[in-house]
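Q: Mind making up any chain with structure tokens?
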Amino acid sequence: MDIGFILTSAVVAALIVAVFTAVLGLLIAFTDKIVNNYGEVTIDINEGKRVLKVNGGSKLLSTLAAEGIFIPSACGGRGSCGACKCQVISDVGPHLPTEIPYLTEKEQLDNVRLSCQVKVKTDLKLHIPEELFNIKKLDCIVERIVPLTYDIKEVTVRMPAGTDLHYVAGNYGQFEVPSYGDMKEPTARAYSFSSHPQQKETLEFLIRLVPGGVVTTYVHSFLKVGQKINVVAPVGDFYVHDNSATMICVAGGSGMAPMKSIFNERIANGTFNDRPIWYFFGARTTKDMFYLDWLWELDANYPNFHFVPALSEPGPDEDWKGPVGLITVVLDDYMQTKIPLAEEKEGYLCGSPGMLDACMVVMKKNKMPEERIYFDKFA
């Protein structure tokens, strides 16, 4: 068979496919514009507290954000964190399979929905917590980027002049990066503040590189000092409860962030010595450890503070004299042998879902009530 004929046929076929794909794309865009053109709709929030006139067709989460009302979303609206809950009083159809894993039976009966999964098609009535009206979108400037380990960067941003942001240690902000690569629009992810509330002009985050992570990849590969960055804050309900119970704190990796914020806030307001604090920090190798000088200084200067770092996989050439093993094993050992069982205790956890679940098992095994274990779980 003629090679030229084969090549010509292949080119023609490729052109036909390209034209067909382009036409199909136009048809889809046109159909979407017609079918999903819901016109102007009204969103009534908290019985008239706010009444919005918006164009229908977008997800409720992004529609509210465009109007300056920010529902917490640790995953940036991907439907993988279950944080963006609100009560939709209007009938918007049955719960989607993507919502049900994150909702209790009572929440489903009360028509609580994930706002990232609800499309705005008609007039809606919602109920959201009043404190969400205090969340702001801040136009910040990147002031400092410090590598702490091979995969964690400390990022400090300066808030706009005159910003009066009230938050508590343990809260987080949604860090937004611009579109890049295949990403067609800005994308945000939630990161705990490592700064503390007495720092009035800046916010600090510890951002660990997650393979394939849209925001973390941008931060580690493209983010520059002097760049403008949007931060939605403050968000979250993780904080230290006001009592005298011994604090058992456990973190790993960038889970250090809220612990740093909590410790420094208590130092700044003079309450760091008010109750015993045990801080367990788990890592694989010494390459994953950071802030050690600061933490050992706290351990030396405050008799109530006990720092327990542990490595799960130290290398044979590493000069490590501390505990070895999974942080849950170390935690269990200390709770059985070094922390009095009769002491009133509370748990404060920050890290991956797997680590947190395992720590909760250990804490409950050692007579800590589940309702006194508080956590900041990464999505």
Notes: The chain is about 25% helix and 25% strand.
